[in-house]
Type 1 glutamine amidotransferase domain-containing protein (Streptomyces reniochalinae), 230 residues
Amino acid sequence: MSKILIVMSAASGWERTDGSVYPTGYWAEELAAPHARFVEAGHTVDFASPGGVLQPLDRHSADPEVAGADCASHVAHAQKALREFGPLLKLDEADIDDYAAVVLPGGHGPVVDLHQDADLGRLLTAADAADKLVGAVCHGPAALLSAVDAEGRWLFAGREMAAFTDEEERLFGTAEGAPWLLAARLRERGAVHVEGPAYEQFNVRDRNLFTGQNPASSTRMAEDMIAALG
Protein backbone atom coordinates (compact mmCIF):
# COMPACT_ATOMS: atom_id res chain seq x y z
CA MET A 1 0.00 0.00 0.00
CA SER A 2 1.00 3.63 -0.41
CA LYS A 3 1.82 6.58 1.83
CA ILE A 4 -0.22 9.75 1.42
CA LEU A 5 0.68 13.20 2.70
CA ILE A 6 -2.11 15.52 3.84
CA VAL A 7 -0.82 19.11 3.91
CA MET A 8 -2.71 21.39 6.25
CA SER A 9 -2.62 25.16 6.53
CA ALA A 10 -1.15 26.67 9.69
CA ALA A 11 -3.47 29.70 9.64
CA SER A 12 -5.97 30.42 12.39
CA GLY A 13 -7.21 33.75 11.01
CA TRP A 14 -8.01 35.33 7.64
CA GLU A 15 -7.40 39.07 7.48
CA ARG A 16 -10.18 40.94 5.70
CA THR A 17 -9.98 44.09 3.61
CA ASP A 18 -11.30 46.16 6.54
CA GLY A 19 -8.50 44.91 8.80
CA SER A 20 -10.68 42.54 10.82
CA VAL A 21 -9.67 38.91 11.23
CA TYR A 22 -12.04 36.06 10.43
CA PRO A 23 -11.27 32.96 12.57
CA THR A 24 -10.48 29.92 10.48
CA GLY A 25 -9.09 26.42 10.77
CA TYR A 26 -9.29 23.04 9.09
CA TRP A 27 -12.70 21.92 7.86
CA ALA A 28 -13.43 18.62 9.62
CA GLU A 29 -15.11 16.73 6.78
CA GLU A 30 -12.42 17.67 4.27
CA LEU A 31 -9.76 16.14 6.51
CA ALA A 32 -11.72 13.29 8.07
CA ALA A 33 -13.49 11.84 5.05
CA PRO A 34 -10.37 11.42 2.88
CA HIS A 35 -8.32 10.18 5.83
CA ALA A 36 -10.96 7.57 6.66
CA ARG A 37 -11.17 6.34 3.07
CA PHE A 38 -7.39 6.17 2.66
CA VAL A 39 -6.93 4.22 5.88
CA GLU A 40 -9.81 1.86 5.07
CA ALA A 41 -8.10 1.13 1.76
CA GLY A 42 -4.89 0.20 3.59
CA HIS A 43 -2.86 3.33 2.92
CA THR A 44 -0.74 5.19 5.48
CA VAL A 45 -1.44 8.89 6.00
CA ASP A 46 0.98 11.52 7.30
CA PHE A 47 0.13 15.12 8.19
CA ALA A 48 2.32 18.16 7.54
CA SER A 49 1.97 21.93 7.74
CA PRO A 50 4.17 25.02 7.58
CA GLY A 51 6.39 24.82 10.63
CA GLY A 52 4.54 21.72 11.83
CA VAL A 53 1.88 23.99 13.36
CA LEU A 54 -1.38 22.24 14.23
CA GLN A 55 -4.18 24.36 12.84
CA PRO A 56 -7.32 24.67 14.98
CA LEU A 57 -10.67 23.26 13.94
CA ASP A 58 -12.93 25.60 12.01
CA ARG A 59 -15.89 25.72 14.39
CA HIS A 60 -18.31 26.17 11.50
CA SER A 61 -17.44 22.63 10.46
CA ALA A 62 -18.73 21.39 13.83
CA ASP A 63 -22.07 23.18 13.48
CA PRO A 64 -24.84 20.87 12.16
CA GLU A 65 -26.72 23.85 10.72
CA VAL A 66 -23.69 24.68 8.58
CA ALA A 67 -21.89 21.37 8.05
CA GLY A 68 -24.74 18.87 8.18
CA ALA A 69 -25.96 16.19 10.51
CA ASP A 70 -22.81 14.05 10.18
CA CYS A 71 -20.42 16.80 11.25
CA ALA A 72 -19.90 15.42 14.78
CA SER A 73 -18.53 12.16 13.40
CA HIS A 74 -16.20 14.06 11.07
CA VAL A 75 -14.92 16.19 13.94
CA ALA A 76 -14.35 13.14 16.12
CA HIS A 77 -12.50 11.29 13.37
CA ALA A 78 -10.31 14.28 12.47
CA GLN A 79 -9.37 14.99 16.06
CA LYS A 80 -8.59 11.31 16.73
CA ALA A 81 -6.47 11.02 13.58
CA LEU A 82 -4.45 14.13 14.41
CA ARG A 83 -4.04 13.12 18.05
CA GLU A 84 -2.82 9.64 17.15
CA PHE A 85 -0.42 10.94 14.51
CA GLY A 86 1.22 13.28 17.00
CA PRO A 87 3.27 16.35 16.08
CA LEU A 88 2.77 17.32 12.46
CA LEU A 89 5.68 17.06 10.07
CA LYS A 90 7.29 20.34 9.09
CA LEU A 91 6.43 21.01 5.48
CA ASP A 92 9.97 22.04 4.58
CA GLU A 93 11.22 18.64 5.80
CA ALA A 94 8.72 16.52 3.85
CA ASP A 95 10.30 14.39 1.10
CA ILE A 96 7.99 13.75 -1.84
CA ASP A 97 9.91 10.54 -2.59
CA ASP A 98 8.23 9.04 0.50
CA TYR A 99 4.70 9.53 -0.86
CA ALA A 100 2.47 8.43 -3.70
CA ALA A 101 0.05 11.32 -3.28
CA VAL A 102 -0.39 14.76 -1.74
CA VAL A 103 -3.79 15.96 -0.50
CA LEU A 104 -4.77 19.56 0.23
CA PRO A 105 -7.93 19.98 2.33
CA GLY A 106 -9.66 23.29 2.84
CA GLY A 107 -11.05 25.62 5.38
CA HIS A 108 -10.06 29.16 4.49
CA GLY A 109 -6.46 28.63 5.64
CA PRO A 110 -4.96 27.84 2.22
CA VAL A 111 -5.95 31.31 0.94
CA VAL A 112 -3.97 32.77 3.86
CA ASP A 113 -0.70 30.86 3.75
CA LEU A 114 -0.45 27.82 1.47
CA HIS A 115 -1.18 29.72 -1.74
CA GLN A 116 2.25 31.36 -1.47
CA ASP A 117 4.23 28.76 0.46
CA ALA A 118 7.49 28.13 -1.39
CA ASP A 119 8.12 24.79 0.32
CA LEU A 120 4.74 23.52 -0.80
CA GLY A 121 5.38 24.87 -4.28
CA ARG A 122 8.57 22.82 -4.53
CA LEU A 123 6.80 19.74 -3.17
CA LEU A 124 3.93 20.01 -5.66
CA THR A 125 6.29 20.66 -8.56
CA ALA A 126 8.28 17.53 -7.70
CA ALA A 127 5.09 15.53 -7.22
CA ASP A 128 3.71 16.53 -10.60
CA ALA A 129 7.02 15.87 -12.34
CA ALA A 130 7.02 12.34 -10.89
CA ASP A 131 3.36 11.86 -11.91
CA LYS A 132 2.31 11.41 -8.29
CA LEU A 133 -1.32 12.11 -7.44
CA VAL A 134 -2.36 15.54 -6.18
CA GLY A 135 -5.75 16.06 -4.55
CA ALA A 136 -7.35 19.32 -3.41
CA VAL A 137 -10.83 20.08 -2.15
CA CYS A 138 -12.89 23.24 -1.47
CA HIS A 139 -10.35 25.99 -0.62
CA GLY A 140 -7.51 23.47 -0.89
CA PRO A 141 -6.94 24.31 -4.58
CA ALA A 142 -5.64 27.70 -3.42
CA ALA A 143 -2.54 25.80 -2.32
CA LEU A 144 -1.91 24.80 -5.93
CA LEU A 145 -1.10 28.46 -6.62
CA SER A 146 2.19 28.00 -4.76
CA ALA A 147 3.65 25.95 -7.59
CA VAL A 148 5.34 28.59 -9.73
CA ASP A 149 8.69 28.55 -11.49
CA ALA A 150 11.44 31.16 -11.34
CA GLU A 151 9.66 33.24 -14.00
CA GLY A 152 6.36 33.11 -12.13
CA ARG A 153 4.70 30.60 -14.48
CA TRP A 154 2.07 28.53 -12.71
CA LEU A 155 2.48 24.78 -12.94
CA PHE A 156 -1.25 24.07 -13.09
CA ALA A 157 -2.21 26.68 -15.70
CA GLY A 158 -4.41 25.09 -18.34
CA ARG A 159 -5.49 22.26 -16.05
CA GLU A 160 -9.16 21.57 -15.41
CA MET A 161 -10.16 21.81 -11.76
CA ALA A 162 -12.98 22.38 -9.31
CA ALA A 163 -12.81 24.59 -6.21
CA PHE A 164 -15.08 26.47 -3.83
CA THR A 165 -16.98 28.77 -6.14
CA ASP A 166 -17.49 32.51 -5.91
CA GLU A 167 -21.22 31.81 -5.56
CA GLU A 168 -20.60 29.48 -2.61
CA GLU A 169 -18.35 32.09 -0.99
CA ARG A 170 -21.16 34.63 -1.27
CA LEU A 171 -23.75 32.19 0.09
CA PHE A 172 -21.43 31.37 3.00
CA GLY A 173 -21.20 35.08 3.80
CA THR A 174 -17.44 35.48 3.37
CA ALA A 175 -17.17 36.97 -0.14
CA GLU A 176 -17.62 40.58 0.94
CA GLY A 177 -14.36 41.77 2.46
CA ALA A 178 -12.32 38.88 1.10
CA PRO A 179 -8.94 40.01 -0.27
CA TRP A 180 -9.60 37.76 -3.27
CA LEU A 181 -11.99 35.02 -4.30
CA LEU A 182 -10.57 31.59 -5.01
CA ALA A 183 -12.38 30.57 -8.18
CA ALA A 184 -11.81 33.96 -9.77
CA ARG A 185 -8.10 33.86 -8.89
CA LEU A 186 -7.71 30.36 -10.32
CA ARG A 187 -9.25 31.53 -13.59
CA GLU A 188 -7.03 34.61 -13.63
CA ARG A 189 -3.96 32.40 -13.28
CA GLY A 190 -5.04 30.19 -16.17
CA ALA A 191 -6.97 27.31 -14.64
CA VAL A 192 -9.88 25.81 -16.50
CA HIS A 193 -12.25 26.17 -13.56
CA VAL A 194 -15.49 24.20 -13.82
CA GLU A 195 -18.29 24.08 -11.31
CA GLY A 196 -21.43 22.27 -10.33
CA PRO A 197 -24.45 23.37 -8.27
CA ALA A 198 -23.64 25.16 -5.03
CA TYR A 199 -22.82 22.89 -2.09
CA GLU A 200 -23.46 19.69 -4.05
CA GLN A 201 -20.80 17.08 -4.68
CA PHE A 202 -18.79 17.93 -7.79
CA ASN A 203 -15.42 16.47 -8.69
CA VAL A 204 -12.97 16.83 -11.55
CA ARG A 205 -9.98 14.75 -12.61
CA ASP A 206 -7.34 16.09 -14.96
CA ARG A 207 -4.61 13.47 -15.34
CA ASN A 208 -2.93 13.20 -11.90
CA LEU A 209 -4.88 16.16 -10.43
CA PHE A 210 -8.05 15.38 -8.45
CA THR A 211 -10.18 18.27 -7.21
CA GLY A 212 -13.49 18.72 -5.41
CA GLN A 213 -15.69 21.78 -5.19
CA ASN A 214 -16.76 21.73 -1.55
CA PRO A 215 -16.88 19.59 1.61
CA ALA A 216 -19.46 17.28 0.01
CA SER A 217 -16.85 16.44 -2.63
CA SER A 218 -14.21 15.20 -0.16
CA THR A 219 -15.17 11.53 -0.11
CA ARG A 220 -15.43 11.22 -3.88
CA MET A 221 -12.03 12.87 -4.31
CA ALA A 222 -10.45 10.29 -2.02
CA GLU A 223 -12.27 7.40 -3.69
CA ASP A 224 -11.11 8.53 -7.13
CA MET A 225 -7.53 8.79 -5.88
CA ILE A 226 -7.70 5.34 -4.28
CA ALA A 227 -8.91 3.87 -7.57
CA ALA A 228 -6.04 5.56 -9.40
CA LEU A 229 -3.51 4.27 -6.88
CA GLY A 230 -4.75 0.74 -7.53
Q: What stands out?
A: Residues 71-85 form the longest helix (15 residues). Helices lie at 28-40, 64-67, 71-85, 118-129, 166-172, 182-189, 218-229. The CA atoms of residues 96 and 127 lie 6 Å apart.
